[in-house]
């Protein structure tokens, strides 16, 4: 039997990180799979960082990113550019990951061409179509047309079954981000990655790592987040905030305006993934609205304060790894103060059992594809 052609479509850094272990597993089996990687470059610079780290060169690079693009512009451009690619390549399966516009458009165009779809990290839900926006709608849309649903946790598996998806199409695999993180953690232990000069001397500070980029927090939400950070930086003199600032101007403007001149806040450019993991490992705890960081931090034993009103990753909340703090200044600042005043609370949260996987998710996904496609 001829090898099955698998086309993986990615466009952002998180997608690249979470799909890299799957791509690597597929490439180890050339007798079973022809592996093709298509990059939309929805986020050019940050995607390229991750591709370089995992030594992945896209076979097709569409380069669709345009400064100031709207969601409608991005969606239309992605569909238009992906359509001839899938038509010409004629893959046996298209793999998409998560909930980005690239993932949604990749799945949709594959459906238009009657190509089976594999959805990595399927089944995450908040039950609020506007939170996170547009990710919650994107992943729900993908679930309606996907053929292989690779659920990272039992909760996400059950969410898919509850919507009527046939059990033979839902597979509990764990989250591939744990595969990627374990690989990078070992790499960082052997060789410290190159880090910015601003991070060379962190001293004995309690380092708080901050990431934030959610569209639903644009405006007042980011103002609150920044004011909470400034309040804690003013009040806790042994604290140092390190914030790799997302490239979106809706994020950068309030962050630079409110925090740009504070001596205990280091605003830096987005880091390569290995340097980011090194920094997370150095932090006392993490303040984030990122989904991936909610999964990564528990592996490193780091408490997480989640700056969102709701999260699709309830497993970390339930396990005690994370606390949902919303986007009100008082709540964010209060929870940070609690953690800074209580090393025992930080230790309890850091020692909670990681609920997101064992580092073998990619192998399970490839085994499932092999069972279904190469027999």
Q: Regarding CATH, which class of the largest domain?
A: Alpha Beta
- Secondary-structure arrangement, i.e. CATH architecture of the largest domain: 3-Layer(aba) Sandwich
SSE series: EHEHEHEHEHEHEHEHEHEHEHEHEHHH
Spans of 5+ residues with little confidence (pLDDT < 50)? Answer: none
Question: Could you tell me the strand content as a percent range?
Answer: 15-25%
Helix/sheet category:
alpha/beta
CATH topology of the largest domain: Rossmann fold
Q: What general outline do the C-alpha atoms trace?
A: globular
Order of adjacent strands in the largest pleated sheet? 3-2-1-4-5-6-7
Q: Gap between N and C termini, in Å?
A: 8 Å
- The total tally of domains equals 2
List keywords for this structure.
single chain; 15 helices; Rossmann fold; 375 residues; alpha/beta; six-stranded parallel β-sheet; seven-stranded parallel β-sheet; 2 domains
Helices and strands in order, then pairings?
Layout: E1 4-10, H1 13-27, E2 33-39, H2 44-53, E3 60-61, H3 71-89, E4 93-97, H4 101-112, E5 117-120, H5 135-145, E6 148-151, H6 154-162, E7 170-172, H7 176-190, E8 206-211, H8 220-235, E9 239-244, H9 249-259, E10 265-268, H10 273-282, E11 285-288, H11 291-299, E12 304-306, H12 314-319, E13 322-324, H13 329-341, H14 343-350, H15 361-373
Parallel strand pairs: 1-2, 1-4, 2-3, 4-5, 5-6, 6-7, 8-9, 8-11, 9-10, 11-12, 12-13
Helix pairs in contact: 1-2, 1-7, 1-15, 3-4, 4-5, 7-10, 7-11, 8-9, 8-13
Q: What can you tell me about this protein's structure?
A:
The protein is of the alpha/beta class and 375 residues long. It has 2 domains: 4-174 and 360-373, 3-Layer(aba) Sandwich (Rossmann fold); 197-350, 3-Layer(aba) Sandwich (Rossmann fold), CATH 3.40.50.2000. The chain is 47% helix and 15% strand. The protein has 15 helices and 13 strands. The protein has helices at residues 13-27, 44-53, 71-89, 101-112, 135-145, 154-162, 176-190, 220-235, 249-259, 273-282, 291-299, 314-319, 329-341, 343-350, 361-373; strands at residues 4-10, 33-39, 60-61, 93-97, 117-120, 148-151, 170-172, 206-211, 239-244, 265-268, 285-288, 304-306, 322-324. Strands 3-2-1-4-5-6-7 form a 7-stranded parallel beta sheet, with helices on both faces. A 6-stranded parallel beta sheet has the order 10-9-8-11-12-13, sandwiched between helices. The longest helix is centred in the first third of the chain and has 19 residues, at 71-89. It is globular, with a radius of gyration of 20 Å. The relative contact order is 0.13.
């Amino acid at each position: 039997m001829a090898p099955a052609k698998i086309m993986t479509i990615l466009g952002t850094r998180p997608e690249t990180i979470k799909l890299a272990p799957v791509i690597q597993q597929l490439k180890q089996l050339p007798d079973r799979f022809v592996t093709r990687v298509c990059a939309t470059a929805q986020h050019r610079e940050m995607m390229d960082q991750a591709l370089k780290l995992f030594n992945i060169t896209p076979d097709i690079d569409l380069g669709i990113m345009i400064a100031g693009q709207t969601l409608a512009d991005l969606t239309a451009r992605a569909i238009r550019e992906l359509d001839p690619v899938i038509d010409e390549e004629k893959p046996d399966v298209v793999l998409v990951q998560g909930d980005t516009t690239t993932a949604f458009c990749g799945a949709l165009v594959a459906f238009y061409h009657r190509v089976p779809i594999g959805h990595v990290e399927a089944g995450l839900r908040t039950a609020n179509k506007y939170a996170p926006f547009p990710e919650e709608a994107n992943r729900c849309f993908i679930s309606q047309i996907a053929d292989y649903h690779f659920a990272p946790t039992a909760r996400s598996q059950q969410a898919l079954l509850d919507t009527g998806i046939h059990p033979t199409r839902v597979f509990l695999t764990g989250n591939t981000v744990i595969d990627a993180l374990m690989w990078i953690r070992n790499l960082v232990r052997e060789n410290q990655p190159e880090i910015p000069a601003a991070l060379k001397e962190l001293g004995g500070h309690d380092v708080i790592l901050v990431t934030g980029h959610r569209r639903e927090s644009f405006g007042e939400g980011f103002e609150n987040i920044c004011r909470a950070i400034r309040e804690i930086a003013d009040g806790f003199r042994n604290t140092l905030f390190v914030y790799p600032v997302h490239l979106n101007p809706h994020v950068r403007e309030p962050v630079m305006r409110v925090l740009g001149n504070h001596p205990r806040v280091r605003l830096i450019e987005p880091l390569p993934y290995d340097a980011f993991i090194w920094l997370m490992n150095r932090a006392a705890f993490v303040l984030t609205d990122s989904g991936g960081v909610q999964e990564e931090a528990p592996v490193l034993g780091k408490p997480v304060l989640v700056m969102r009103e709701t999260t699709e990753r309830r497993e970390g909340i339930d396990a005690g790894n994370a606390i949902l703090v919303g986007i009100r200044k008082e709540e964010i600042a209060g929870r940070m103060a609690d953690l800074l005043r209580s090393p025992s609370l930080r230790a309890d949260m850091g020692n909670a059992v990681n609920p997101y996987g064992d580092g073998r998710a990619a192998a399970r996904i490839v085994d499932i594809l092999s069972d279904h496609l190469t027999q």
